[in-house]
Each structure stands twice: as C-alpha cells, then as structure tokens.
Amino acid sequence: MNIQNISETATPSSKGYWVTSIDEHISYTENGHNLIEESEESSFWYEHRLNCLQVLLHHYPLQAILDVGGGNGQIVEFLQNQSINAVLLEPMIEGVLNAQKKGVQQIVWGSLESLAPKENSIPAIGLFDVLEHIEDDQQLLAQLYKALAPQGWLLISVPAFQFLFSDFDREVGHYRRYTLRKLSQKLAQCGFEIQYKTYLFLPLPLLIWPIRKFYRLIKKRTKRRKLGHVQKNGFFGSLLRLYLKTEIFLIKRKISIPFGSTCVIVACKT
C-alpha cells in the first residue's frame, strides 16, 4: 500500500516513519503502550487474538491493510510476516517508536482524522480494540466506510458486554463495551454488510467480573494493567490455551461463539 495514494496529509520524516499534523485528545492511559508491551509477548490473550486473525485471513485473504490505532505494531508485524502489505496508523508516539523497534516497516504517526484518507482508497482496514476509545464511534465507522475501496474489508474487535464495564475500562480510556448485535447495527447504519461475527474468550466474563470488582485495591498501575493478562505458559494460561483451541476449531468452520469477552466482526463495504 502506497501511503501517498491513501492520504492527503502524510509526509515522510527523517526518523523513518510518516507524520501528520495530529492535534487531538486520545482517550488512552498515559504511557499505556509501554505498560502493555510485555503483556503482548507473554499473555494468552494477545496470542489468541493473533491466532484468530490468522484463521480469518484464511477465509478473507488480504493483500494490503491499514491498521488504525495499532499501538505497538504487534498486529502489523504479524501481518508483515504473512507477506501482507500492512501500514500502522498510530496516534501516540510511544506506540510508533515501539513499533519501529519491532521492525514494522510502514508507520504513520497520526489518527484517521489527521491522515485525511482519500475516498475509496484503502483495500482493507483493521480496527482492533480501538472503537471503544472513541467517543463518537458512529462517526468513526462512517469515516472508515468512506475511506474503504468498494468491496473493501473491515476487521474489527471490541470488548464485550456493558455489565463488565469497570474502573479498569475507565482507566484505559474506554467509553463503552459492546454486544455483537449493537455493533452490527452500527456497522449496518454506515452501509457495511456483515460477513462473519463471533464472540471470543467464552470463559473470561465469569473471571473478569469478580476480578474487576477489586481492581482499585491494586495500588500499582503496572500491576493493574496486567490484570487478566495471564501468562500463556503458566498453569492457568496453559488451561485457557487448551480451551481456546476449541474456539479456533469453530472459527475455522465459520461457527459463531455465542458468548465471550470480545466481539469480532468481519464486514464489507457494499
């Protein structure tokens, strides 16, 4: 994907990434990307998200994709290794720098608004655990629809179920959590056609609810941010990984999982 072909404003910098004139509030924890960088490598949660993405790419092959709000670049790095032309769009400089250290090749420091994408220019967009940070989520979805090329793909994940909303969500800058039904309605209002939808992490709501109730008792923010990110090689993480193979089995067959802590939707611009 040629960045100049999709943006009205992005310019290359001497530091190896592209820049835009970003000047807006970002609803995210201060130093948040650095706090989660270790968890991205060690947590079963991030591992399963990548495994699910791998299966979805088999069903919906992509040549190029823009990862909006892609943080430290974990997903773009993963896509690069799949020989997919992936571009990271990240509004926080710490995420940009962390992605550079990972070897992410195409990075734009900016938001969708500051990128000013050209209409019908982007073949696919990833929005992975970003929409919940946006106050006017409907407006962002409409902007994504406008930027996508005809028959372009949107891959989106968000946290599920408002009854799980807690101090943790507030601290990391979430405005809300979703259901598949609510998110599908928002996408349909913009003109998207839903191709596949499912929940992920079926057991986690039963674990998240009591843990998050005691969230504020943990004084140190770095420890709070790791709450729920169980080590994938620990005893409990190994048990979860064993179960999560079942979710991969179902997604491979395009069977929707009826409950979980994350919503995933693949949608198409019609």
Give an account of the 3D structure.
The chain is α/β, with parallel strands linked by helices and 270 residues long. It has a single domain (3-19, 31-269), classed as Vaccinia Virus protein VP39 (Rossmann fold, 3-Layer(aba) Sandwich), CATH 3.40.50. The chain is 41% helix and 20% strand. The chain contains twelve helices and nine strands. The protein has helices spanning 3-6, 32-42, 44-59, 74-80, 93-102, 112-115, 137-147, 167-171, 180-190, 204-213, 221-225, 235-252, and strands at residues 11-12, 18-19, 64-68, 85-90, 107-109, 122-128, 148-159, 192-200, 262-269. A nine-stranded mixed beta sheet has the order 1-2-5-4-3-6-7-9-8, with helices on both faces. Helix 5 links the parallel strand 4 and strand 5. Helix 2 (32-42) packs across helix 3 and helix 3 (44-59) runs parallel beside helix 12 (235-252). The longest helix is centred in the last third of the chain and has 18 residues, at 235-252. It is globular, with a radius of gyration of 18 Å. The two termini are 21 Å apart.
Descriptors:
12 helices; Rossmann fold; 270 residues; alpha/beta; 20% strand
Summarize the structure.
The protein has 270 residues and is of the alpha/beta class. The chain has helices spanning 3-6, 32-42, 44-59, 74-80, 93-102, 112-115, 137-147, 167-171, 180-190, 204-213, 221-225, 235-252, and strands spanning 11-12, 18-19, 64-68, 85-90, 107-109, 122-128, 148-159, 192-200, 262-269.
Going by CATH, the architecture would be 3-Layer(aba) Sandwich
| Main sheet properties | 9 strands, mixed
The rough form would be described as globular
Q: Which structural class fits the helix and strand makeup?
A: alpha/beta
Q: What share of the residues lie within helices?
A: 40-55%
Could you say how many structural domains there are in total?
1
Q: Which strands sit side by side, in order, in the main sheet?
A: 1-2-5-4-3-6-7-9-8
Q: CATH topology, anyone?
A: Rossmann fold
The CATH H-level superfamily is: Vaccinia Virus protein VP39
**Mind telling me the CATH class?**
Alpha Beta
Give the overall pLDDT as a whole number: 92
Distance between the termini: 21 Å
Instruction: Give the low-confidence spans.
Output: none
Count the strands?
9
Order of helices and strands: HEEHHEHEHEHEHEHHEHHHE
Number of helices: 12
* Rg from alpha-carbon coordinates: 18 Å
The portion of residues forming beta strands comes to: 15-25%
